[in-house]
């Protein structure tokens, strides 16, 4: 097994918004192909045509049905922290291909494509920041990079963030959105479950506070490790949370499953999450619990 499955490379920023042209072609029953790109988008929940700027001003939540659009890590950080207060850390960490893994194409080629698409080195951003004046260590997963699968870089950056929160005696806030462990890194990916969980145990022994925020979707090894170990577990409305997908579970147990059994509302009822908080209220909720915990 290689000693170091990560390497260092230049960091990148966040990409822009790309709205498919077909969403703009017919508005008010007319051919509006002259409408500039990126002004309108269709809500996948209520199918209403939404003005993009209005959705952005509503924290990327549909103003009609309150559907929470998926957002990248830079946008999430922008919404959570106080202006100009975030200091990004360890942006130079990038994954290697120690196993020389090949599925439909070599992992190293897939990484290059994903890095170009997401304009990021890997699937997590970590750093120091302030949420309503409360100093925190923040780690945010980015679904745009291989569905935020957890590989060696995600595990390393999160472990460093946990250790920094322990050393600085700051609350740790982790925003999860993931498809699970990264299969292209095999056992190296699975090892991150134990690695991050052990770091969280040390944080707990030191009396630290860990707030885990679950967004849509949070699955696999992420759910089976650090995402469900928070002192407080907050979920966004209607977020899908589980270990395996509903179809996989149904095919395995050969039983009819309760409707919405992997949605945050069902999990709140069963005690797996502590709160369901709309995105617009997340800053206030986190700051309130930091004060309540005396941090």
TrEMBL record:
Annotated EC: 2.1.3.15
Positions that bind Zn(2+): 43, 46, 62, 65
Family statement: Belongs to the AccD/PCCB family.
Stretches annotated zinc finger (C4-type): 43-65
MF terms (GO), sorted A to Z: acetyl-CoA carboxylase activity; ATP binding; carboxyl- or carbamoyltransferase activity; zinc ion binding
UniProt function note: Component of the acetyl coenzyme A carboxylase (ACC) complex. Biotin carboxylase (BC) catalyzes the carboxylation of biotin on its carrier protein (BCCP) and then the CO(2) group is transferred by the transcarboxylase to acetyl-CoA to form malonyl-CoA.
Subunit field text: Acetyl-CoA carboxylase is a heterohexamer composed of biotin carboxyl carrier protein (AccB), biotin carboxylase (AccC) and two subunits each of ACCase subunit alpha (AccA) and ACCase subunit beta (AccD).
GO cellular component terms, semicolon-separated: acetyl-CoA carboxylase complex
Cofactor(s) this protein requires: Zn(2+)
Biochemical pathway: Lipid metabolism; malonyl-CoA biosynthesis; malonyl-CoA from acetyl-CoA: step 1/1
Alphabetized NCBIfam families for the sequence: accD
Domain of life: Bacteria
Locations listed in the record: Cytoplasm
Keyword Cytoplasm: yes
Origin organism lineage: Bacteria, Pseudomonadati, Planctomycetota, Phycisphaerae, Phycisphaerales
Domain named CoA carboxyltransferase N-terminal: residues: 39-295
GO terms (BP aspect): fatty acid biosynthetic process; malonyl-CoA biosynthetic process
Pfam families: Carboxyl_trans (PF01039)
Cofactor note: Binds 1 zinc ion per subunit.
Organism field: Mucisphaera calidilacus
Record-linked InterPro entries: AcCoA_carboxyl_beta (IPR034733), Acetyl_CoA_COase_Trfase_b_su (IPR000438), ClpP/crotonase-like_dom_sf (IPR029045), COA_CT_N (IPR011762)
Subcellular location, principal: cytoplasm
Name recorded for this polypeptide: Acetyl-coenzyme A carboxylase carboxyl transferase subunit beta
Top EC class, one word: transferase
Catalytic activities: N(6)-carboxybiotinyl-L-lysyl-[protein] + acetyl-CoA = N(6)-biotinyl-L-lysyl-[protein] + malonyl-CoA
Keyword annotations: ATP-binding, Cytoplasm, Fatty acid biosynthesis, Fatty acid metabolism, Ligase, Lipid biosynthesis, Lipid metabolism, Metal-binding, Nucleotide-binding, Transferase, Zinc, Zinc-finger
